[in-house]
Structures are given as C-alpha cells and as structure tokens.
Prior knowledge:
single chain; alpha/beta; Rossmann fold; 15% strand
Amino acid sequence: MLKGKVALITGASRGIGRAIALAMAAHGADVALIYAGNDKAASEVEQEAASFGIKARCYKCNVADYSATEALVAQITEDFGGIDILVNNAGITRDKLIMQMSEADYDDVLSVNLKGAYNMIKHTSRQFIKKRYGKIINITSVSGIMGNAGQANYSASKAGMIGLTKSVARELAGRGINCNAIAPGFIGTDMTDAMPESAREELIKNIPLKRIGEPEDIANLAVFLASDLANYITGEVIKVDGGLCM
Length: 246
Ligand code: NAI
C-alpha cells in the first residue's frame, strides 16, 4: 500500500512509533526512524523494519530543537531522495496537578509534543509543496479533547496539536497535502505501563471495548491515512480509543 514512499516517523524506537514504523515498512515504505535516547532499541527497530525488504535507517535527534530538526530533514532527504510521509509521534509526559507543576514541567512537554511537531512540519513542507504530495499524521491524544486532571501540560500540547493539524490541513490542502491527527485512548506502552494495577482496572471498566489498546491499533490507522486510500480525508482528528471518548 505504501510501496515506493518514504516515511519519517518520530519517536520510533518503541511503543506506538515503533509499531507505526514496522507497519509502514510491512506495507512497503522506506522508513527513517527518529528517536531521542536508546540507541540499542532504535537499531533493533531498524533491523526489524529492514527485514521487510525496505530501506530503514535510524537517526538520533531531539525534535524540540529547531536547527537540529532542520539538519535532520536535510540529511534524510539526501539519504532517501525525499520524504513523502511525516508522522509526528514523539511525545513525553510530566504529569502533575497544576499546583505542583513547575515551569520546566510545562515548557518541556510543550517543547517536545507541540513545538516538535511544528519543527518537523516546517522543515518537510517545502518539499511536500514542491512535489504537490505529502501525508502528515500527528499523534495527539484523547487528553487533548477531553482534558485530564494531572495532565494540564500534556493536554494543552495535544489540544494544540489539533489546532496545528487543522490549520496546516487548510493551508496545504490546495497543494495535494493531507494533514490529519490520530487521538489514541489508553494504549499499552512504556508511557502507560507505569500506571498502578488498580488504576488500570478502573480505567478498563470505562472503556466500552473492555481492553487497553495495542500500539498496532494506532499503526493500522496511520498506514491507512498515509496511503492514497485516504486522499479525500484532511483536517480530521480520528479517535482510536475503544469507545472511551464518544
Ligand atoms: P513512549 O514513551 O513509549 O515512546 C516515546 C517515543 O518518543 C520514544 O521513541 C522516544 O525516544 C521518543 N521521544 C521522546 N522525546 C523525544 C524528543 N525530544 N525527540 C525525539 N524523540 C523523542 O510513548 P508512546 O506511549 O509510544 O506514545 C507515542 C505517542 O502517542 C506520544 O505522542 C503520546 O503522547 C501519544 N499517546 C500515547 C498514548 C498511550 O496510551 N500510550 C495515549 C495517547 C497518546
């Protein structure tokens, strides 16, 4: 479904980003994998992706850094001959109640989650416009739609991503570029494994499909949105949450 396309996925060393990278590779895309810290995990994903017979390479880069992401996009463009699909998945949490939330807690989350997405869109959109083709997929969260106590910084960043998605979709629609967001509910990854068992059970009670989502549940939609089957979908925020947030 994605044969001949080049996909850049941020936060691809684990969790949802890893699943998206592997699903895109399985559907024939070459993949550039961006990660923050874990070299070993990233190179394992690179190898696993390459086993599908596509080109895969990982790059260490902080998405919050404007000039580093500019150099990163230039390097990937040179290495792969261009980029067709951008998935802004890198994200962090620093959960605290607002009274305990420090300025750094707020700034760090906004910098990675929201400014990181801006940086990547800014640096890739020129080539998308030039070739009149591009698929941008932003991974937001149901927290950005509903809000969540203890996540004011995170919810603000994810709500901001929704505004970013819709504005970019409007700006670039005339150039054959689609920009959409996926809002996962509760997905089993390192980010959510930290939750106590009792809280987890309580949460599952509120999910109509009665289970925590798998990273692959998000990856399936990302592949669809990145494909030409989704050419008439733009500016959309699609929830993948087992019915949690209807
Ligand atoms: P994770 O914590 O397992 O993985 C995060 C990835 O982002 C890692 O590959 C890490 O290297 C990368 N990363 C972190 N900071 C970075 C930076 N400054 N520069 C470059 N890469 C960086 O997270 P998970 O659970 O896989 O989440 C992925 C995305 O999905 C995040 O944006 C998260 O907010 C979102 N999400 C996750 C949900 C869940 O239940 N797990 C629910 C809703 C949204």
